[in-house]
Design brief:
Length: 59
């Protein structure tokens, strides 16, 4: 499982299986926002998911 967390100045993706994380680029933020429209909502700060198609996730 993965999750994306929105912070004030950046977004990050986290891998729950191994604890790895990294910041998302602006292009990746735009791509995941299209894939998960709920991220556009200001009140939403985190989205959990099993797979993501819009960015390549490293194991």
């Amino acid at each position: 499982m993965f999750y994306i967390k929105k912070f004030v100045t950046y977004w990050a993706i986290y891998n729950c299986a191994n604890g790895a994380s990294r910041l998302l680029t602006t292009r990746e933020q735009e791509a995941v926002a299209r894939e998960f429209p709920e991220l556009a909502c200001r009140q939403v700060v985190m989205v959990y998911f099993a797979t993501v198609n819009s960015i390549k996730l490293m194991p």
